[in-house]
Amino acid sequence: MCGIAGVVYKDKKLHPVGSDMTKMLNALQHRGPDSAGFSLYGGLGLEDNEYLLNIEVKERPGLIESVKEIVEFVSPIKSEELIPSVENFSIYRCKISLNEFSQLKPLIMDIDKLEDVMVLNGSHSFEMIKDVGSVLEIADRYDTWSKMGTHAIGHTRFSTESLVDRYHAHPFQTYIIPDITVVHNGQITNYWKIRDPLERKGHIFETNNDTECIVHYVADKLENGYSLEEALEQSVKDMDGPFSYIIGTPNGVGIAKDQLGLRPGVMSENDDVFAIASEEVSLREVMDTQNVEQISPGEVRVYEI
Amino acid sequence: MIIYEGDLMREIEIDAQSKTPREINRAIRDMSQEYDRIILKNPDAKHYLAAGLTNDVELVIEGSAGYFVGTMAHNARIKINGNAGWFPADNMTEGEVIVEGSAGDGVGQGIYGGTVVVRRDVGSRTGEIMKNGTVIIGGNSGFMTGIFMMGGRIIILGDLAEDAGESIIRGAIYVLGKIKSLGKNAKIEEIDEEDKKELKELLPSYGFELDDSKYDNFRKIVPRSKRPFYGQDSEEG
Asked: Which run of H or of E encompasses A139?
């Protein structure tokens, strides 16, 4: 099943987006018990050349030092934090600075070569939080309740194809262009047909998960001059299978639904908030409205600030 | 739990907050044996509300319902003062489900009887595989309305999206607004005086007051053939 949600505050100011998205996802908990995740945009406040790395590290003596050694070969570590997770893993978070965005993916690939280490993501304008367990467990573990931001997307996962671990939890991110993430409910049945031309262009796939394919596809379109709305509209034509997915960018969010409308999606907005989700119960956590719209088969909705 | 006992009607309130759908439905079922009207507070768009409710009772849901509200209901009169998710009244056999707001996909899916009313717009596949009964939509209805419909009637006061009446076998879809396109085995007919009389009796009884002249604008989608999947263009037998 899976539950997806997105919210944008129209005034572009900072709001308690972590708390709001936690409530939206908790309302969708019944749609997926395996893992949950958040992309919280606009609240990191990093300098232009700064990035935040989220790295999964097994609790083994000396391993974090090995990670730091690789990072410090490229960038000074400006701040760091260690968040205990489950199954003998912790999340090592550090703030770094790079001369170019293009240095980020090679650095991540170098870190990933260490055994029992996996970079969950690296970002500039959003904070990614994802882990196994329930929404509320993850919210408490990472204190999503206190996070501020301008917009967010989130996910509760009912796994159908790939592994249940924090790396395969949604959101998925691409490094084709900065800070594009996706959450997804469904399956892309022409996955290899979509993936193959992207790989031929040199885009790197880290998993066999169809959700990763969506985020690379959309980022590739954005890099080639498509607007977010145009990219999503094209994806509906190109991708087969039952799906609804939400893309997060530094400027907003957008939802796309398959042409047969086989996965749910509803939206509502008022003067202050634009919200989309799998079910109305989630929208009600951020607005009190009777005006809930169904996203139609093949339809795309985008809200950018 | 608040109980009102008037001269003629026994009414009770159930607060759905912090209850699971199973606990809510058990309470509804138990109370429906003793009371004439049940008011469900704080439904929070939970799924499966009033599933399998088979007593002759009026249930008022004060807020939105999630998926499958009133599924397999028989005899109950269910009113939702909010929106409904996917498949309201799925497989209902008799009774009423009235949604005062909008609803998702599959409104009245597979019903055998009874009446489903949604005041505003609905999603796709309205009346999918319905066998009998009535579905009334006050607004627009999405993609493939009446897909594999096998009987009964659907009345749409707004517009119909693509592939209306896809693979319809029996029954009729009455449309007041535009029809974007027809599905396989569907054709449009003008309505006759008998149809008009039926609609004029039915719609006001559910609060849809139309000018008399509007009834002339209804069109009817019906099957081209009752056996479209056996290679025959025309109806057999």
From this structure: helix A135-142
